[in-house]
Amino acid sequence: xxxxxxxxxxxxxxxxxxxxxxxxxxxxxxxxxxxxxxxxxxxxxxxxxxxxxxxxxxxxxxxxxxxxxxxxxxxxxxxxxxxxxxxxxxxxxxxxxx
Length: 98
Hints:
Largest sheet: none
Oligomer: single chain
Structural class: mainly alpha
Number of strands: 0
Order of helices and strands: H
């Protein structure tokens, strides 16, 4: 083998090694980036789940409050109707005496 061929072969080996090392380094960085992205996605999923639970609790509280207000409203309607009936009887009685 001649000196020129040895130099060319050596250059080829060095270039191939450089390419492979660069590729492995890039793959490692890509893997790290994928890991960071997956971690952030997990965090987002956890936060969304936590928010859904909080919204469910708030919704349940609001449902309970609405139910209570509806009961109170019905009780007030009944009381008002009762009072209106008593006023009508009182008005009717005083009008008959005049």
